[in-house]
Amino acid sequence: MTSEIHDALVVGAGPAGIAAAITLQRAGKSVLVVDKAEFPRDKFCGDGLTTLALRLLDDLGLDRSTVASWAPVRDVVVHSPNDNQVVFPLPEGPGSYGAVARRVDLDMALVDLARSVGVDIRDGHACTDLQTAGDAMAASVDELGEQRARYVIAADGMWSPIRKMVGAATPGYLGEWHAFRQYFKDVGPNAATNLHVWFEPDLLPGYAWSFPLADGRANVGFGILRGGPVAVRDMKTVWPDLLARPHIQAVLGPDAQAESPHRAWPIPARIDTIKLVHGRTLFVGDAAAATDPMTGEGIGQALLTGINAAEAIIAGGSPADVGSAYANETRTELVADHKMAVALSKVLAKPATAEVAVRIAGATGWTRRNFARWLFEDYPRAALLTPKRWRRDLFTSPGAYQTTSHT
Questions:
Q1: pTM for the full model?
Q2: I need a labelling partner for 128 at 20 to 30 A (CA). Which of 147, 235, 314, 359 fits?
Q3: 324 lies in a domain?
Q4: Is 198 domain-assigned?
Q5: Contact, 175 vs 268, CB < 8 A?
């Protein structure tokens, strides 16, 4: 048994956990990170990075040149149900507003960054039990024995084992969305440079995508609403048909080849109803079901919840104060946007209304530019409905990575 009591034990070394750990370490707090996986490890994901995610990664100090597959996004091409194409340009600068990076590369770079600033990360060590021990939490960790911490930050995914250990899990929970992706090489120039979204009539309110990666590669996939027109069990069957559609083939190009097996995963998106705190345990990232319910984007939300949890611990106070500070800040920043995204998903659920929505968004140069910024979380989705989040540069903030310090 360890005699040291850490300020925080972080379970999970993905973006949420690492963002929390770096924030705590830089504030002079004692933090230990454990993860059952050994890094580098892959994480099934669409790999897209919104402006929100990029700004937070930049603030954490991530050097994007350390992420081998990093590819900037300049234009977003949206294909309506009738395959009318609208190009939504992201701002030209200053800074970056969109990118794509394989999670195996991104997550490893974040782990390396955390270690470089002094965070103690023990990958390959699972947390197998968690109990309250007076004014601390006692965790059993494989090969490390008992580890005590004043707070536990659970960044251990949608089916968080920590949730089960503390009795805060929802039995039978399967997530709100399900996604399916495959990596392709030798894609055509359109897929290699632009981010594509297809609102296919039979997938709505889901969509298909092609996200560009470095070296002529792309992350290609589709996501569906659980209980929607396509059953999760049928996704593998739908996939060849989707890839064979002429308008999708035209973007991927004649030489595109799958370079890895396809993968599927569930997406949790219920930040508005899930329990974020249990005593001295704070749930972040997928363990907080913080994914955007319209796009399935979760990296920006994961980083944000991890930072919020760390800042609540740094601010101090009683466990109730810390828990309330974290939950209140996270709900203030995410719940209104979540509800707006849910409402808009209903608009996109029918081909006719989805077609109208794409036409309206692409009506003018102004609407196209601002829709791209809205879609990429350049500012809060429900900003106009939440005046407390207004600031002078809300709609004109520069992108991330403006300086050369992080290349």
A1: 0.95
A2: 314
A3: yes
A4: no
A5: yes
Other Cβ atoms closer than 10 A to 317 = 12
- On whether the CB atoms of residues 17 and 35 are closer than 8 A, the answer is yes
Token digits of residue 82: 């009738």
- The structural domain count of the chain equals 1
CA distances from 135 to 6, 7, 38, 98, 309 (A): 12, 11, 31, 43, 18
- In contact, 120 and 32? CB cutoff 8 Å: yes
First to last CA, the chain: 43
Asked whether residue 385 is domain-assigned, the answer is no
Say how far apart CA 50 and CA 96 lie, in whole Å: 10
d(CA 402, CA 93): 8
Burial status of residue 134 (CB atoms within 10 A of its CB: 0-12, 13-18, 19 or more): exposed
Q: What is the pLDDT along the chain (407 residues), one digit of tens a residue?
A: 456 899 999 999 999 999 999 999 999 999 999 999 999 999 999 999 999 999 999 999 999 999 999 999 999 999 999 999 999 999 987 899 999 999 999 999 999 999 999 999 999 999 999 999 999 999 999 999 999 999 999 999 999 999 999 999 999 999 999 999 999 999 999 999 999 999 999 999 999 999 999 999 999 999 999 999 999 999 999 999 999 999 999 999 999 999 999 999 999 999 999 999 999 999 999 999 999 999 999 999 999 999 999 999 999 999 999 999 999 999 999 999 999 999 989 999 999 999 999 999 999 999 999 899 889 988 777 776 677 776 777 677 889 998 744 44
Q: How many CB atoms lie within 10 A of CB 269?
A: 28
Cβ burial, residue 296 (10 Å; 0-12/13-18/19+):
buried
Which position has the token pair 């659980």? Answer: 226
Q: Residue 133 belongs to a domain with what CATH number?
A: 3.50.50.60
Q: Please tell me the distance from the alpha carbon of residue 250 to that of residue 58, in angstroms, as a whole number.
A: 35
What's the domain range around 303? 5-73+100-174+269-343
For 400, which DSSP code? B
In a domain, 170, yes or no: yes
